[in-house]
Amino acid sequence: MKFKLVISAVIVVGLTLCSGFYYNSAFSQSNKEFRTFVGGLPSKETAAKKATHQKERKEMLKRMSEKLPNGNVEATVTFQHFLSLSEVQKLIDKYPSIEIKRVWYWVPGQDGRAMTIVKGRDIKKSVDDAIKRLEKSNHDVNVKETLDKMSKGNLGVFSISVKGKYSHLNEMSNEEVIKLIDVHYNEGLEKQAKEAGKKARYVELPEKPDGSR
């Protein structure tokens, strides 16, 4: 199943991506900016490479939390396994100073992903409202089947997009359910962009815990 829809606050995507695009810094000639992906590594990468990448990103967060503890930064948070909406709500409620901006979810075991903008820190209402809007406006059989599963609760959250202080994000990274807090900051990329007088952009493509795309 391959489809892409953009409706209001929800984006549903059947992904077919080349792993070579993951996490490699590149200059976009059309947009005049330096880009890199954030959110983990693709499932086809070796366990050793994934572990090294996660270690580097975790060390960078720790380093920045010591160097610039009150600095605000966006981050893509991935989980060890799929979480329910209520589990994610409980997690984010423990950190009132951290803003939750987006939630990423899908039917576990299926290729595809959805992203919904979170309003008022209410994750369940934001997702429920987005799914309802999409159900009313879409007539594709495959899409409706997937939406029906999600509306009945058969969905799992694999990532959230947040914004907060480095120190608070570093504290949050100790939660057992969290696999990686990948902050939207890369020293090498920022240096390249600054030297070229261009912008640095971080494109979210969070890794799913079951290896699906």
User: How big a fraction of the residues is strand?
Assistant: 25-35%
Number of domains: 1
User: So what's the overall shape?
Assistant: globular
What is the strand arrangement across the widest sheet?
1-2-7-6-8-5-9
- Average pLDDT level: 86
Structural class: alpha+beta
What's the number of extended β-strand segments? 10
Radius of gyration: 17 Å
- Low-confidence segments, given as residue ranges, are 1-11, 13-23
Mind explaining what this structure looks like?
The strands form 2 sheets. Strands 1-2-7-6-8-5-9 form a 7-stranded antiparallel sheet. The protein has a 3-stranded mixed sheet with strand order 3-4-10. The chain is globular. The protein is α+β, with helices and mostly antiparallel strands. Residues 1-11 and 13-23 have low confidence and may be disordered. It has helices at 47-67, 85-93, 123-137, 141-151, 166-172, 187-196; strands at residues 4-7, 10-13, 26-28, 33-38, 72-83, 99-106, 113-117, 156-165, 178-183, 199-204. The longest helix is centred in the N-terminal third of the chain and has 21 residues, at 47-67. The protein has 6 helices and 10 strands. It has one domain (4-16, 25-40, 62-204). The termini are close together.
List keywords for this structure.
213 residues, three-stranded mixed beta sheet, alpha+beta, seven-stranded antiparallel beta sheet
